[in-house]
Structure formats: structure tokens, C-alpha cells
Design brief:
Blueprint (H helix, E strand, L loop, with lengths): L13 H11 L22 E3 L2 E3 L3 E3 L15 H12 L4 E2 L4 E3 L18 H19 L6 E7 L24 H4 L11 H21 L3 E4 L6 H5 L13 H4 L1 H13 L4 E9 L4 E3 L12 E3 L12 E2 L2 E5 L2 H12 L4 E6 L6 H4 L16 H18 L4 E4 L9 H10 L5 E4 L1 H5 L3 H6 L15 H7 L11 H4 L2 H15 L1
Parallel strand pairs: 3-4, 3-15, 4-6, 5-6, 6-7, 7-8, 8-13, 13-14, 14-15
Antiparallel strand pairs: 1-2, 9-10, 11-12
Helix pairs in contact: 2-3, 3-5, 5-8
């Protein structure tokens, strides 16, 4: 089999064919033959947790559109996306999208940003979502909406989508070179960290005033909160020991609890990571990326949270479990599990058949990547049964998503199943599943990665292959030109 020449989900002979194929890969992936609908089904059963009642087990992941106004307020595109989140019928909206706590922490110049000027508009996003949810379901009972708070750290591009203005926790032996961080430029100072923590608390207070049920203190995907977890070489109170590497989180939480006591807190966590990957230069051709291979690394490699330092291509949940114990000590048991980073190992976080423009062809069958995330959440749930875990990485299952999602919830592997890219293409999917309607296969995301390639090139994100709104937009032509250039470069 050639690299990247993996069978497409649509080629399998139904559920039995899908099951046979994943078993041939050595994957013990749960998959139910029949998906049930209604409030008594595994996916339809409400969840009572920490004083919240979440109406069923299908949720929407935070997804940025790179389409806000430059002052951090939502644009009409942003409002449309949040309306569609409401129309999905999902009863848990985990963060909506990443909201920077201050302007210099944005991952792009058009990222949602919580400021005094934008607060009213961000409150309006919640209202748009609730109105759409009422339209789709007839009410707003058991609906929980959060806002994800972030600082993009190493991946800040607040002014120019082509230029990193990185703020880093420590000098990384591989990522500094990969993303062009000058060796002589200092890392963020302890004093600046203290000011940033204050910005998180201020943003959380504003989210509380906007009516959000919780905030997500983001610790995933290589952004600043996640990077602190591997700041083993950083001196001072925010690096070195595990206690110091979790101080950033603890001080943010302590501040929020003091200033916004009504607000619940969750954490989206990259529970595992790996070394950076790149297209194999020996198998890359002009216009054709090779399969991903790891960058050269030395062991022990201590810079991938949730990886074995002596073999960082394998995950190790020792520190992940220690982090969850820290969360428990903070009375936080509401956790969204994800993996890796879209910037340096996208096949870990978003299993896909087709790479984004700055990626590589998958180094493994993407179903292996899906199973890795399922297994991680299963192990964490077994170790922390009193936590509420939301899982990620399901989109590549495509038309078999409902069968696998129902099975993992029914077997107790996970509490809530998160939907990401799939909702961009097919927002009604949760309601179709819960109402036992036939799956609209033509609307299933096929992981073409246009929703990543577009923003990587300064174009708003969206589902260009399947959403007519984006297909008819001027940005569609821009994206087509970018992809054509990449194929001939």
C-alpha cells in the first residue's frame, strides 16, 4: 500500500465492513450495530454533574473561524457559526471558540478577544446560540454553554497572519527553530505572567457577566497554558518541578474563584503529545507532501506532555494523571480531552486522510489516530471515575461516528462525545442521531482539511467542500488559488 493510500470510510460494506477493517488494523474499537434514538438511549441520556444537567451526550467542540473583526468582536460569519452551534441541538457547547484574554494573545488578527469593548458582543453570541437552540428543540432546558479562554503563546499572530509574534514559556529545542523563534529573544517574564493571570481573571469575570455557565482554562494544542506543562528547563516559580509547571493554572483558578465565584471552570487538555512531525523529504515531490516523519530528537525528550521521555513516540499518562489530581485539588472535574497540536503533529489531534497545506500525509491509518484518543480517555475515565470527561477526535469516523459514539458512551469509556469539524459541515447531526433519522452521508466531513488550509493562508475558516455558504463566497476562489499554487510549487 502506498503512503496515504488508506481505504475511505465510504468504501466499507456497512457497519460490519467497517468493523472488520478496524479489527484488521488490530484496533479493538467499540462499534454498535444499531444506533438508538430518544431520551433513554445511551447518547440521549441526560448527565447530572456538579450541579449541572446536560441534556444528552453529544457536544460541540470549540472551533475558531479566523473571521472576527480586528477589534476582537464577532463578525457576521462568527454569528452564523454560533447560530449553527445552537441549531445542532447539542446540549453542551464547550467554549464555542477560543477567546483570547488580551489582544497580543491572539493566534490570528481576527480571533475573538474578550475586552471591555467586545464584552457586549460576546454576550450576544450566547444569545444568538440560545435563540437558535430554542428554534431547533423548542426550549433551552439542560443547555450548558462555556467560553474558552486562551493565550496563544508560541503561536501568536495578533497583527499579521504571516508573522509569528511568539510569547514563549521556555526555549524549546525543536519548536524554536521550526517556527523561527530567535535564540536571543527572552521568554515571558514572571512579572508578565502575573499580569497575564490577571487578564485571565478579568476575562472570566466578563464571561460571567455575559451569562456563560463556565470558562475553559485552555491547556492544549501547544498554546501557552499547555506549554507551561513542559517548562522543565524554565527557572523560577513557573518551571522545573511539576508543582511549578502547574502554578500558572492554579493561580488562574484561584483568581477566578475569588472574583467570579458563580462561574464553573473546565479544562481542555492535550492529555498526550509527541515530537514535531514534518513531511518525509525523501518521499516528497513538488506539489505532493510526503508522509509525516518525526523531527530529529534526542532522548530523554522532556518536552511532550503525556509522552514517554525515553520514547516520545509513545504516550505515557503518568504526568497527565498527576495533572488531573491537581484539578481535583482545585475542585475541577470537568475535562475535555484532546491530544497533540495542529501546528506540529496534526495527525495526533485531527486524524485525516488529506493534509492541510502546511502538513503532511498521514504516517498511519487515521483510524489508528482515532483509536489512540479513545484509548486515552478510556484509561483516564477508569482512573478518575468521578470526573466528567468529554472526548475528541471522532470526525474521521464519518458515517460510523454514531455507532462508535454510542458504544463508547454505553461502555463507560467517556461521558460526553465532542463533535468538531463534522458540525461545520452538518450541524443537524446531533439532532438527526437523537431523533433516529437517517444519517445524511453526503454531508459528512471527509477531512479534506480545507477548514485548516484556509486560515493557514489568511482566509476565513469554514467547510468549503460541503457548506454552500462558503462554496459561493469570494474566499472559495482564494482558497482554490492557494491549493492550485501548492500543487504546482
Amino acid at each position: 500500500m502506498k503512503f496515504g493510500d488508506y481505504p475511505k470510510a465510504g468504501s466499507f460494506d456497512g457497519v460490519s465492513g467497517f468493523r472488520s477493517y478496524v479489527q484488521s488494523l488490530g484496533l479493538d474499537m467499540p462499534c454498535d450495530d444499531i444506533v438508538s434514538g430518544g431520551p433513554n438511549s445511551p447518547l440521549g441520556t441526560p448527565l447530572e454533574f456538579d450541579g449541572m444537567r446536560i441534556g444528552h451526550r453529544l457536544a460541540v467542540q470549540p472551533m475558531e473561524g479566523w473571521d472576527c473583526l480586528t477589534d476582537g468582536r464577532p463578525s457576521e460569519n462568527t454569528k452564523r457559526r454560533w447560530k449553527r452551534f445552537g441549531l445542532s441541538g447539542a446540549k453542551l457547547i464547550w467554549g464555542g471558540e477560543a477567546c483570547a484574554v488580551r489582544p497580543d494573545g491572539r493566534a490570528n488578527p481576527k480571533q475573538l478577544t474578550m475586552t471591555e469593548q467586545s464584552q457586549k458582543d460576546i454576550a450576544g453570541l450566547r444569545e444568538i446560540l440560545i435563540a437558535a437552540h430554542k428554534e431547533a428543540t423548542g426550549g433551552e432546558d439542560d443547555l450548558i454553554i462555556g467560553l474558552q479562554l486562551t493565550h496563544s503563546g508560541r503561536f501568536c499572530k495578533p497583527n499579521d497572519n504571516t508573522k509569528f509574534e511568539s510569547i514563549i514559556a521556555y526555549h524549546h529545542p525543536l519548536l524554536d527553530k521550526k517556527f523561527g523563534y530567535p535564540a536571543g529573544r527572552p521568554v515571558i517574564s514572571d512579572d508578565e505572567i502575573n499580569r497575564l493571570i490577571e487578564d485571565y481573571v478579568i476575562a472570566a469575570k466578563r464571561a460571567e457577566r455575559c451569562g456563560y455557565d463556565f470558562v475553559d482554562v485552555k491547556h492544549c494544542h501547544g498554546y501557552l497554558g499547555h506549554e507551561f506543562l513542559t517548562a522543565v528547563d524554565r527557572p523560577g516559580p513557573y518551571g522545573g518541578s511539576f508543582e511549578n509547571r502547574t502554578r500558572f493554572l492554579r493561580e488562574i483558578v484561584e483568581g477566578i474563584r475569588a472574583e467570579a465565584p458563580r462561574l464553573r471552570i473546565g479544562v481542555r487538555l492535550s492529555a498526550i503529545d509527541s515530537v514535531p512531525f514534518k513531511p518525509d523529504p525523501a518521499r516528497s515531490l513538488p506539489g505532493a507532501l510526503g508522509p509525516g516523519v518525526p523531527d530529529d530528537f534526542a532522548v530523554p525528550y522532556r518536552y511532550a506532555f503525556g509522552a514517554d521521555p525515553n520514547d516520545p513516540l509513545r504516550y505515557d499518562l503518568t504526568e497527565t494523571k498527576a495533572f488531573l489530581e491537581v484539578l481535583r485539588s482545585l475542585d475541577i472535574r470537568f475535562v475535555n480531552i484532546t491530544a497533540g497540536s495542529p501546528y506540529y503533529n496534526p495527525h495526533i489531534i485531527r486524524p485525516a486522510l488529506y493534509p492541510p497545506s502546511d502538513g503532511y500525509h498521514p504516517p498511519e491509518d487515521p483510524f489508528v489516530g482515532v483509536m489512540r484518543q479513545l484509548e486515552v480517555v478510556r484509561e483516564l475515565k477508569a482512573a478518575f471515575p468521578d470526573f466528567c470527561f468529554m472526548g475528541s477526535g471522532y470526525t474521521y469516523l464519518q458515517e460510523y461516528f454514531p455507532n462508535v459514539a454510542q458504544a463508547v458512551v454505553r461502555q463507560g469509556w467517556v461521558d460526553i462525545v465532542g463533535l468538531g469539524r463534522m458540525v461545520l459541515a452538518y450541524p443537524e447531526l446531533p439532532l438527526d442521531i437523537l431523533q433516529n433519522k437517517p444519517l445524511q452521508k453526503k454531508r459528512c466531513c471527509r477531512t479534506f482539511s480545507d477548514c485548516t488550509t484556509a486560515p493557514r493562508n489568511g482566509i476565513v475558516s469554514g467547510c468549503y467542500p460541503l457548506d454552500a455558504f462558503y462554496k459561493k463566497s469570494a474566499e472559495f476562489k482564494q482558497l482554490a488559488a492557494v491549493k492550485k499554487h501548492a500543487q504546482t510549487a
